[in-house]
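Re: duplicated header lines in exported structure tokens

Our pipeline writes sequence and tokens for each protein into one text file. With two proteins the header for the second block appears twice in some exports. Here is an export where it did not happen, for reference. First protein block:
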Amino acid sequence: MSEKELPLSFVMNLAQNEAALKRFEAMSKNEKDELINKTHSVHSRDEMRSLVNSLSEGTLNMQ
């Protein structure tokens, strides 16, 4: 998997969370790249779901 590929679990969670998908689509390229990099450090389905939910709730910490 290349550095910029979206993990399947991230894509599946985005597909199930319309608010998160809309926020992701509205992000700048740099913001998307930062988030994609963050997804590569997620190690479980629950962590990925939490990450996507935080995106939809506007509580995602990008640091």
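Second protein block, exported in the same file:
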Amino acid sequence: MSKVKINVENLDLFYGENQALKNINIQIEEKKVTAFIGPSGCGKSTFLRTLNRMNDLIDNVTIKGKVEVDGEDIYKTDDVIKLRTKVGMVFQKPNPFPMSIYDNVAYGPKLHGVKDKATLDKIVEESLKGAAIWDEVKDRLKTSALGLSGGQQQRICIARAIAMKPEVILMDEPTSALDPISTLKVEELIESLKNDYTIVIVTHNMQQAARISDKTAFFLTGELVEINDTNVIFTNPKDKRTEDYITGRFG
């Protein structure tokens, strides 16, 4: 068995009085792709955001339980910036900053005190290569990232995350706003990234989960119904609710 990178125990999350996550217990393995599937509003994106404390930004949220990254409880640290450096995030809609491609990728390292141009050049090149977009943009690094296609913008956002040297990359439906060709490129990228990163992806697309993930977790009404190897979840789920969702008999 692979090393456990993230360990979650007895996690409950409330928006005010409304309980959105109920007693979540899960272990996420290092350098694997773990997919979260389930119907809209089932809590999978909310749970993803607990893994780097993005829910801290929402008013009236209460979180109980334990979330450990490398054995350290992330809700007992005051250094949220350090946490979000280690656990990066890529959002559903590509969100490059309104600045050059180069400055998008160099933004995080600059913020963390890297000033040497040669060092920044190296980080930018390595990150863009890591995001499989260097060859497409190397001659236009000073042009605005907003001029790129949606798929290219999403890979710039992945490069921006990689530039911070994270250990975990969270992806919240990273291809839902993209066309099929761009989706395929991002999926191929995720396949290669898992050699170096632990990846957790929320997806509505079950075929995508089947294609790219090693483990799949099925969520329903704020509960984790089951998690298993992806091929087992899709061929021999233990819970009838999972089977109904996968076969389209759900609801």
